[in-house]
Amino acid sequence: MDPVVVLLLSLFFLLFLSLWRLSSGRGKLPPGPTPLPIIGNFFQVDMKDIRQSLTNFSKTYGPVYTLYVGSQPTVVLHGYEALKEALVDHGEEFSGRGRLPICEKVAKGQGIAFSHGNVWKATRHFTVKTLRNLGMGKGTIEDKVQEEAKWLVKELKKTNGSPCDPQFIMGCAPGNVICCIILQNRFDYEDKDFLNLIEKVNEAVKIISSPGIQVFNIFPILLDYCPGNHNIYLKNYTWVKSYLLEKIKEHEESLDVSNPRDFIDYFLIERNQENANQWMNYTLEHLAIMVTDLFFAGIETVSSTMRFALLLLMKYPHVTAKVQEEIDHVIGRHRSPSMQDRSHMPYTNAMVHEVQRYIDIGPNGLLHDVTCDTKFRNYFIPKGTAVLTSLTSVLHDSKEFPNPEMFDPGHFLDENGNFKKSDYFIPFSAGRRNTVGSFSISLYCRNTSLIVRGPRGTKALALSTKQTAWLRTCPRGIGGVKTSY
């Protein structure tokens, strides 16, 4: 048979199969826009503003609808009620981790972020337990944060009020706190290995958060054959994991089972215990990916939040003045802030929450999937179906936050000026797959307070030209570039 005829018949068969799969599955799933064969709804979604596209679809199809990523269906949850019902009320069914091929290529089902089932449950349990043993939520980590905040302010003072971009310095601070927890020691801001680590993490996160990377997640076959910055991400991730694996092997040689020093030691000690969790993967590779996840999750997220907090405080001097007044009144200028001060500083606490709400740093969170065949709001969602959660739709809900496009700490204050909690405050998702790393938020809170207050004689930070231009426009959802999350 003529090769051309064979090719045409093969293409026709693939097209027919794609159409059949789409038509057979759509009747059971929530409604959504009509997908095209092979590419699904790819051209109907604005990859540069996925959040707005999701909002537009929700106006037509409701708070629960289906988009096709290539030939694979993805159920989208839009709005507080839909997210709460799925992630909290049906937390077990929606606790799976959706596929992100570029991340699976390096994680291989290991670590915290991209493991599954019982392995993920055991890994998360160990991580939370160990972080608590190391002082998460206690004074131990608080001391480390306070010390690092002093180093950060000292580094910022070196600018002498000249225009600067504090992005890289802001990455060093949370990076050092994470190093103290995982590797026992902090590093000098001029240490070459440390600077290389921070640079590669920041570059990798920037790449994986870019809209263009979605093409490779939709068509993963391109990962191995096409050039692109995804190769830089893979290279950087591999470098970070290899660097941490070397540190793990150094820990093995100096391990004292009666005196665990850090996260790595706790893992190495537990893997040799008779009562070790049978579902835990106690290989050094798994440990290396676990600690790599902690670096990737903590450094860029916290540093970006701190950086945009500074920019917002510069743009809104009346907010800065109120924060400054409260800090001076409660903390003064001769000691470091502590978590005990938070209950006495409602406006500063509200400002911190409003920054995280407003910048919307992870608009869609990481993909979930359902762990079993699930009935949800009269729809049937087959096991393994991807689930995308629009966190933006909750953080910018106009019923909970009047004028959500405005930066206003009053969104978290009651009529008496007291701090007001909100169930809609879910910047890092909710339920069983929410972010393990609340210690990072503490780091951000304390560092922001220190920089706003500053020691006596500290000149105010000046802005670079790029930052000045940003302040003139101050777009909604500053962190919204993170479309892959």
UniProtKB/TrEMBL annotation:
- Tell me the cofactors it needs: heme
Key words, A-Z? Endoplasmic reticulum, Heme, Iron, Membrane, Metal-binding, Microsome, Monooxygenase, Oxidoreductase, Signal
Q: Which Gene Ontology terms of cellular component type are present? A: endoplasmic reticulum membrane
Q: How does the entry describe its membrane topology?
A: Peripheral membrane protein
Localization recorded for this chain is: Endoplasmic reticulum membrane; Microsome membrane
- Please list the GO terms describing molecular function: heme binding; iron ion binding; monooxygenase activity; oxidoreductase activity, acting on paired donors, with incorporation or reduction of molecular oxygen
Q: Does the keyword Metal-binding apply?
A: yes
CDD domains registered for this protein in UniProt: CYP2C-like
Indicate the secretion signal residues. Answer: 1-25
Q: Which family does it belong to?
A: Belongs to the cytochrome P450 family.
UniProt-listed PANTHER family:
CYTOCHROME P450 2C40-RELATED (PTHR24300:SF140), CYTOCHROME P450 508A4-RELATED (PTHR24300)
Q: What is this protein called?
A: Cytochrome P450, family 2, subfamily c, polypeptide 13
Organism, scientific name: Rattus norvegicus
